[in-house]
Amino acid sequence: MINTNDIKKFKYTCILGWSASRYGKFSNCKRQYFYDYYAKFDKDTPIEKTQFLKNLTSKALEVGNIVHDIIRDMLKRYQISAKPINREKFFKYSFDITEKYCNSKTFFEHYYNNELVSTTEIYAKVKSILENFINSSRFRWIEKNAVQQSSEWIIEPEGFGETRINDYKAFCKVDFLFPIADKIYILDWKTGKADETKHSKQLTGYALWVCYHFEKKSIDINPTIVYLYPQYYEKHVKISDFSIAEFANIVVEETKNMYEYLIDIDKNIPKDKKTFPLTDNSFFCKYCNYKEICSDYKF
User: 21 is in which domain, residue-wise?
Assistant: First the structure.
């Protein structure tokens, strides 16, 4: 049985915690990583400005945010009632959410390129993705096989999914976790470009999270990457004791890599901004939220 009360709680500490997204930013551009996580230590730019730029969204990012939140809300609705959804009402709700999100965000494309971003444009893709999902065999399978145990579902749990990996702090927050018989299923929604290597690593982290908090064996966990666009398809991630141990070692190594840019590990205080180099990838740099304030920006 899965019970959210079994999720272990941790006392707050300043020390940084590994996550797939955090290390991805660290790998892509260490200067962007500095702005994302250490803006208060920047002597050149007011933190309010950096925070504003950090909060810029993009069309692709916002589509993903909207889809994740709508699927989350739909699954939580199934925890209240097993009655099939009314598709007309569902898509009306989806449009309303899209409109609300678009009206409350500042888009990168508009801020930097003065491009008009319309709710209609965003919703067209959102609707297509949601149709792919609710028309999939997986969705029908959830309705038929999983709803009976919906009280045990874990849907984007509160907080950041904090856990411990070889005694190092880490964050692994699942999209959707549910039991069927004695197996644990994990589904993770993806609306962007497929990257099976990167995403498989992320799902291995989720499996480790399950093992840690619910004392499950790797053989009992079935993680699946769910690609929702441009068409629906899945990638099952094979989990074993070896893959989890290998992943844990990688997390330790990557955490130590990030530690190297700190002058105080326990207090999570970074070295000077200039020690965080820019990426050499001009394409990546061109689409960075922080290019307005990055004094070394050259593209």
Answer: 12-55+262-299
